[in-house]
């Protein structure tokens, strides 16, 4: 028996050693090249022209989508980002936001021109490319613009579930001339973000087949159900590619549109493949099963990308940002002095160093709630907020009558400041760190912050039972059309006003921004909004979320675009280098 | 026998009903299915929210919601999904994907478990036994996702070394699919081999331990010793007398494990991005899709019941002394 035992141990040790070596050694080989990461395959070039090149004819490119697509209507209320990414390839919009985050470029394939010809009343004239047709040969005309207007205007179609109605609800007329190739739109009140209108258009002749009979009910049927293509996919296209197949949860396969009227494409097919587990994207890229991935960057993931041969990547700043939102509905957060002190004590630079700064050398504190540094309107309006100045924070509190009793902060009425609940979306390690650092800074003021998770941002920040947070660390997807977006976020009772903020001055400035047609005027009003919110200590912006795009080294014209359009904004130009 | 089967099936009805009701209440209480819609940017209108609430039957009392779901099942209506997919249309292909993934792995695991278990038992405390025992425990203690990731990496290294894609790491087929018979067969094989190995190895390890311990126990029983004493050939004693009896406890374990596997090999499906029952459940839970979770639960309940019944019936086949009635 003793011999058996000794033998067992000996054999076991040997076996475990051999198996461990067989299993672990190859895994190490595929890991990071070094602890710090290898940046030799990083593309650092001018945002709008990075990775430019001439493509040879043929080939297939597979782009990874991280969510399944359930609704194909790119103008629908409940679409996900993935719908827009695919729509870039087949559904044209008048304007496209370029990767530099500030240039809103005319889609010269679709339009010859699009201009604002008058400001009173605001008049817009779109001249459509005479060659522009849908893939069945039907010309793209004013009828398609007219359909989008009617479906997005709640005065015409109250039951249409459109993502945005802003601007459309001010249109008084839409007239087509030159066989519908010139569209003249008149608005009853100025709409500064007019370039956001009709993006993208939808085919009116297809809408008729889907139920649009001219009545509001027919319009809603075509828009809400028809263009959603439940269990199916769009069989029309006005872009460089058209659908060949769609298997839900798996992939959309697109092929060149034979009636494409714009710059020629080179690919044989373009595949959008659904991979819902981010960690599986890098192996799939390495194995050439996919050629482009656009995952949320993390330290390990980035190092794995850096270790791949034959792969290039871009790490750029996009329009996504992180911020800390106070809940003004809760009594504890209603005192501006307390909010100001907490946000002054928060050390954003330190937060960056311990989160995104570990893999993004370009990450720096965001000092404006509305603009990002790449946009011309950007201006530092934050003052002392986010500086981590504990002494200043303490003086703000003492000036307001707060006192420290032991290690607890006591408000001017003598009541201890209650423990604040700070939430972040579960499984987000970066936001967890953000919250923990914020809590540590608050502790130095005598304020206890209890960090908790939530599994639903929607249920937490909207007016639902269980809106139980004092502070929320959350992401925010910015847009280039800032007036429209931020009026809903900051205006009293705005649809995106998750913190319950209300300021008469901000409401007035936002109203002016919405009506302004000059970009400089818009920036002036919105910076006024931002400055007022600093006064009110509402929202602490943290940093821009880096956008990671990795792709096979032989691809050309593939480049990061951290806007709503995403990298496929120029999918028609993607190709395999010669 | 038929009466026994019918009686067993009837017994399961109240269990499924009570289980489904408890699950319905728990899933309903787990969060607001409209949460993501409420956080849309730009926001959706109150009218749209109200319409969606009505579509998902959230404006009805909980009991009525459950009753409509239950009665709807008999009409082929699985209830409205948060994601607007047709649940009935979605779940059957998912089950087929899981079955496709599981069947080959289970057959391989069974074969391995029998061979390894029997050899270990017959050659107890030999170096072969130690080898199989160590390998079994190593696989038992190894997380499936880790094994899967290691295998993936090895497969990619093989692909890179050979310069051709022999193994695939995501999905069950290439997109666009190859043309021609042999390229298609090769493509399917290249996609199925890695998840099959992962499932087979992680499944076989505990099964082989069951076979080994049963065989060791049976070999020491009086009737096996009697058979040997009567001079029956070693192979006959082993296969016809010992193994047959030793398979009874394994049958129970396999039946239970099969039900779990068919309900979704969640980790393997996730790592290899197969769209089976496991990923269906994950998506349903993430989206707080009450009726999708209920559909999964109902199907899994039926599978568990069926496999338990099959296990009971197999007992009678394996051991003639057992009579069902």
From TrEMBL, chain A:
Pfam families, alphabetized: SBP_bac_5 (PF00496)
Name of protein: Peptide/nickel transport system substrate-binding protein
Lineage: Bacteria, Bacillati, Actinomycetota, Actinomycetes, Pseudonocardiales
SUPFAM superfamilies xrefs: Periplasmic binding protein-like II
Domain Solute-binding protein family: 109-495
GO cellular component entries: ATP-binding cassette (ABC) transporter complex; periplasmic space
Keywords assigned: Signal
Signal peptide: 1-32
InterPro entries from the UniProt entry: Peptide/Ni-bd, SBP_5, SBP_5_dom
Any one GO MF annotation of this record: peptide transmembrane transporter activity
Automatic annotation (TrEMBL), chain B:
Protein keywords: Cell membrane, Membrane, Transmembrane, Transmembrane helix, Transport
GO BP: transmembrane transport
Residues passing through the membrane, by range: 12-31, 101-122, 129-149, 188-207, 242-267, 290-318
Pfam families xrefs: BPD_transp_1 (PF00528), BPD_transp_1_N (PF19300)
UniProt subcellular location: Cell membrane
Membrane topology: Multi-pass membrane protein
Family per record: Belongs to the binding-protein-dependent transport system permease family.
Protein name: Peptide/nickel transport system permease protein
Residue intervals of the ABC transmembrane type-1 domain: 95-315
InterPro entries: BPD_transp_1_N, MetI-like, MetI-like_sf
GO cellular component assignments: plasma membrane
């Amino acid at each position: 028996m003793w011999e058996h035992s000794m033998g067992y141990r000996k054999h076991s040790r040997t076996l475990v050693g051999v198996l461990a070596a067989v299993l672990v050694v190859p895994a190490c080989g595929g890991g990071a090249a070094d602890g710090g990461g290898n940046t030799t395959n990083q593309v650092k070039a001018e945002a709008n022209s990075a990775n430019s090149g001439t493509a040879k004819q043929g080939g297939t490119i597979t782009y990874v989508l991280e969510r399944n697509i359930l609704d194909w209507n790119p103008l629908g209320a409940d679409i996900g980002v993935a719908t827009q990414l695919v729509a870039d390839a087949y559904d044209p919009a008048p304007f496209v936001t370029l990767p530099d985050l500030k240039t809103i470029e005319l889609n010269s394939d679709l339009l010859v021109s699009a201009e604002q010809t008058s400001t009173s009343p605001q008049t817009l004239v779109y001249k459509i490319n005479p060659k522009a047709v849908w893939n069945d040969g039907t010309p793209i005309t004013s009828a398609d613009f007219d359909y989008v207007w009617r479906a997005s205007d709640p005065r015409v179609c109250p039951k249409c579930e459109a993502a945005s109605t802003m601007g459309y609800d001010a249109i008084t007329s839409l007239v087509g001339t030159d066989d519908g190739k010139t569209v003249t739109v008149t608005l009853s009140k100025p709409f500064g973000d007019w370039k956001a209108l009709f993006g993208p258009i939808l085919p009116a002749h297809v809408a008729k087949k889907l139920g649009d009979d001219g009545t509001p009910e027919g319009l809603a049927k075509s828009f809400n159900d028809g263009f959603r293509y439940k269990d199916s996919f769009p069989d029309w296209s006005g872009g460089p590619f058209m659908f060949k197949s769609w298997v839900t949860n798996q992939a959309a396969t697109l092929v060149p549109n034979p009636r494409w009227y714009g710059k020629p494409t080179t690919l044989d097919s373009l595949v959008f493949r659904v991979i819902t587990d981010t960690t599986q994207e890098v192996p799939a890229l390495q194995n050439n099963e996919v050629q482009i991935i656009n995952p949320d960057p993390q330290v390990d993931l980035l190092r794995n990308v850096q270790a791949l041969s034959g792969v290039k990547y871009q790490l750029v700043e996009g329009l996504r940002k992180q911020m800390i939102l106070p809940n003004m509905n809760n009594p504890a957060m209603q005192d501006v002095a307390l909010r100001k002190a907490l946000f002054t004590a928060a050390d954003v630079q330190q937060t960056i160093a311990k989160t995104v700064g570990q893999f993004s050398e370009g990450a720096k504190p965001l000092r404006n709630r509305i603009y990002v540094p790449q946009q011309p309107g950007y201006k530092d309006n934050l003052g002392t907020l986010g500086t981590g100045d504990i002494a200043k924070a303490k003086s703000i509190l003492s000036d307001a009558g707060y006192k420290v009793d032991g290690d607890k902060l006591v408000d001017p009425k003598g009541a201890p400041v209650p423990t604040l609940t700070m939430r972040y979306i579960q499984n987000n390690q970066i936001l967890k760190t953000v919250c923990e650092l914020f809590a540590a800074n608050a502790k130095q003021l005598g304020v206890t912050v209890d960090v908790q998770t939530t599994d639903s941002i929607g249920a937490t920040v909207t007016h639902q039972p269980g809106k139980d947070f004092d502070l929320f660390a959350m992401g925010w997807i910015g847009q280039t059309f800032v007036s429209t977006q931020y009026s809903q976020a900051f205006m009293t009772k705005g649809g995106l006003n998750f913190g319950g903020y209300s300021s008469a001055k901000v409401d007035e400035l936002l109203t002016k921004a919405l009506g302004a047609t000059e970009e400089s005027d818009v920036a002036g009003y919105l910076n006024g909004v931002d400055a007022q919110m600093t006064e009110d200590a509402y929202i602490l912006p943290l940093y821009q979320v880096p956008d990671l795009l990795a792709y096979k080294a032989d691809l050309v014209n593939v480049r990061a675009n951290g806007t709503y359009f995403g990298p496929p904004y120029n999918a028609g130009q993607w190709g395999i280098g010669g | 026998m038929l009466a026994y089967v019918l009686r067993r099936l009837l017994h399961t009805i109240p269990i499924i009903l009570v289980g489904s009701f408890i699950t319905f209440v728990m899933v309903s209480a787990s969060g607001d299915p409209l949460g993501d819609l409420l956080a849309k940017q730009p926001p959706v209108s109150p009218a749209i929210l109200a319409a969606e609430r009505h579509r998902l039957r959230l404006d009805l009392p909980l009991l009525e919601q459950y009753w409509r779901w239950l009665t709807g099942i008999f009409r082929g209506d699985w209830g409205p999904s948060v994601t607007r997919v047709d649940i009935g249309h979605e779940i059957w292909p998912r089950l087929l994907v899981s079955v496709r993934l599981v069947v080959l792995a289970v057959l391989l695991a069974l074969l391995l478990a029998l061979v390894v278990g029997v050899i270990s038992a017959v050659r107890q405390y030999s170096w072969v036994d130690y080898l199989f025992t160590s390998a079994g425990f190593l696989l038992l203690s190894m997380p499936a996702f880790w094994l899967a990731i290691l295998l993936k990496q090895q497969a990619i290294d093989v692909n890179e070394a050979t310069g051709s894609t022999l193994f695939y790491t995501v999905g069950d087929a290439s997109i666009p699919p190859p043309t021609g018979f042999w390229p298609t067969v090769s493509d399917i094989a290249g996609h199925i081999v890695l998840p099959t190995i992962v499932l087979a190895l992680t499944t076989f390890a505990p099964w082989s331990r069951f076979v080994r311990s049963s065989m060791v126990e049976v070999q020491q029983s009086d009737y096996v010793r009697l058979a040997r004493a009567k001079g029956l050939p070693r192979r006959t004693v082993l296969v016809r007398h010992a193994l047959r009896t030793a398979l009874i406890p394994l049958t129970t374990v396999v039946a239970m494990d099969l039900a779990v596997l068919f309900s979704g090999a969640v980790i393997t499906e996730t790592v290899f991005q197969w769209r089976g029952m496991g990923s269906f459940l994950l998506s349903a839970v993430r989206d707080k899709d009450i009726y999708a979770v209920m559909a999964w639960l109902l199907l899994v309940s039926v599978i568990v019941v069926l496999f338990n019944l099959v296990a009971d019936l197999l007992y009678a086949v394996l051991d003639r002394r057992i009579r069902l009635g």
